[in-house]
Amino acid sequence: MSSMDGSISQGTAWVGVCALEEIPRQGSRVVATASHGEVAVFRALDDAVFALEDRCPHKGGRLSQGIVHGHAVTCPLHNWVIDLESGEAAAPDVGCAKRIPVRVEGGRVLMALRG
Asked: Could you tell me which residue ranges the Rieske domain spans (predicted)?
């Protein structure tokens, strides 16, 4: 069960951030990082895990406080729908939340952080 395993550059470390069970299905958890700031880690109903910078590209709303549905989250401020796999806003809205590579190994959620 992994998701968002994008290209990882040299100097990047995979860091354990929590157990998968600590993120509610169709919910999120916020992780504070030195390299990416606050990151929202989402768990879909099918246990897929995604991580995005915790800021909507529209007005900076906290995506972690949005509603998770399928592999998307709806921003709580102005209802923009953000695709969790790409970070892209659904049309007609235009914008992109920064994605952070994340994966699950042995029931632990790991995030790629720059070293």
From this structure: 14-111
pTM value surpassing 0.85:
yes
* Homologous superfamily (CATH) for 12-114: Rieske [2Fe-2S] iron-sulphur domain (2.102.10.10)
**Residue spans per domain, the chain:** 12-114
Name the token pair of 40: 């929202």
Contact 12, 23 (CB under 8 A): no
In whole angstroms, give the CA distance from residue 109 to residue 104: 5
* Structural contact between residues 41 and 73, judged by C-beta atoms closer than 8 angstroms: no
pLDDT tens across 6-40, in order? 445 556 789 999 999 999 999 999 999 888 899 99
